[in-house]
């Protein structure tokens, strides 16, 4: 009897380990052609049918309105997208008849069922591969987002959200320990077959926004259609830094900071910034080209979308 109990205990332990491993691994697929389009870019054009939207979240959440979408011609798995303009709970556009937060939600109501054009940063991050069916219209199962959404065109109206990309006071992010775990423990492999790239994401933690210390290599800064991409390091408090790709969006203050740094004399520029975790499409595409049906590990898999120094409370 004791032997059987011992064997059952071992079985449950093994089952628990396997379950923990499966929870850490997240798998999704993206067309190779799309990775190639996103590679080397920061902001890309999109055309999407809006399926639903959330309310405008508070600043203590993420201050955004999430819009579920189907992108024209996209064949990834899962197929869903979410479009996310930044800081709508704080930013208004009286000239566009947006005079209060509820006006953004009214705009969302008008967009549902229509096809819009826009642009933004393609964010690949498998945090929502499974979702609550009750909210599937505004938050479909997805690993792909336009985040931040930078422009939106509907009919004769054009909205420019570039200046909305900043780090407001009171914005909540994940804890430094969680952020550091993402930086140091994330491993990504890709396998390309018949034009589709399977992305295998493994990490002990996952999250979205965080406050990190970032160091930019001035010589690596590239201006891309007014936005910037660069190589650098990122670290949470008191930990070893990790190599990352960093991007900033045209129209944001932090983008202007990087433009000034590119012209400056300092080899490295270090500052605290609110960041949004993403996968690096440039590195994913480079690894996929080497795949030939075999798994290839991605070098420098993390991309950080910079929102700028957090405001003092």
SSE layout and pairing:
Layout (H helix, E strand, L loop, with lengths): L1 H23 E7 H7 L5 E10 L13 E5 L8 E4 L17 H11 L3 E14 L13 E13 L2 E4 L15 H10 L1 E7 L2 E7 L6 E9 L4 E3 L2 E9 L6 E7 L4 H11 L4 E12 L1 H9 L6 E2 L4 E7 L5
Parallel strand pairs: 4-6, 13-16
Antiparallel strand pairs: 1-9, 2-3, 2-5, 3-4, 5-6, 6-7, 8-9, 8-15, 10-12, 10-14, 11-12, 12-13, 14-16
Helix pairs in contact: 2-6
Strand order in space, largest sheet: 2-3-4-6-5
Largest sheet: 5 strands, mixed, barrel
What's the tally of helices?
Answer: 6
Q: Shape, please?
A: globular
- How large a portion of the residues is in β-strands, by DSSP E? 35-45%
Regions with little confidence, pLDDT below 50 for 5+ residues: 1-23
* Helix share, percent: 10-25%
Rounded to an integer in angstroms, the radius of gyration calculated over CA atoms is: 20 Å
Order of helices and strands: HEHEEEHEEEHEEEEEEHEHEE
User: What structural category arises from helix and sheet content?
Assistant: alpha+beta
Cα-to-Cα separation, first versus last residue? 62 Å
- Total strand count, please? 16
Give the rounded overall mean pLDDT: 91
